[in-house]
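Sample A.
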Amino acid sequence: MNQYRFKRSFSADSNLSNKLFDLVEIVFPGLGDIAECGRKLGASWEDASTPFIRFHDDIAITHVGVLEIPMQIMGQTVTVGGVHAVCTRTEFRRRGYYREVI
């Protein structure tokens, strides 16, 4: 029987980044290299994004990243959210997993 798991914290699993970037690299080739450049410049993906990831047999199958973005609007500091790096492995698409994590 296949086990499905859901994770949303890089700090809870030290291997989560590697598992996420295995998925992201399949869907967005080259994005892992860009994220690595960001790390070298002090802008870590793991520090900026909260991942919502669905797993199947310890393999990331779908991901939605959420960003908190501080802004100044009409002199007032507010925090808005952004969604990024939405992806699902081809063989798991059209099964509702994106809806589940969003």
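Sample B.
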Amino acid sequence: MTDDSLPARSRAVADALAGAGLPGEVRVLPDSARTAAEAAAALGCEVGAIANSLVFTCDGEPLLVMTSGAHRVDTGHLARELGTGPITRASAAQVREATGQAIGGVAPVGHPAPLRTVVDTALAGHDLLWAAAGHPHTVVPMTYGELLRLTGGTPSTVVPPEQRA
């Protein structure tokens, strides 16, 4: 049963986690965790352990990229890795339409429909990851393996080797 004190979007994330059999519990932070740096500071972890949820458009469809907070997605590199057309950043309206969530709180799940997802292989270097949970003040812990299983994501590098932290 979901905690009724959570924001509605975070309850949807908690329900998706429970439905997937994952133990992660959505946590409410006192301050915003809109950026990887804010989240890492609030959680006392490395910025690279923050799994940013970024929405792009690719071949006319939304593409969710779960990337390490330690670097920015190189869209040209990612398109080459995936063998797709150009990848461009989605607008705030496109993010909301695809995920039902606002930028700064986009979770890996809890969306109106499943999204094609890529998971940054750099995240595998951390024992515990933190992802947004549907609201800028909520986060959820999980492992890299749990993130892959939860999203059905494709593991990929999202930056060329020379840009990796």
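B remarks: The two ends are 39 Å apart (CA to CA). Residues 144 and 150 are 10 Å apart (CA to CA).
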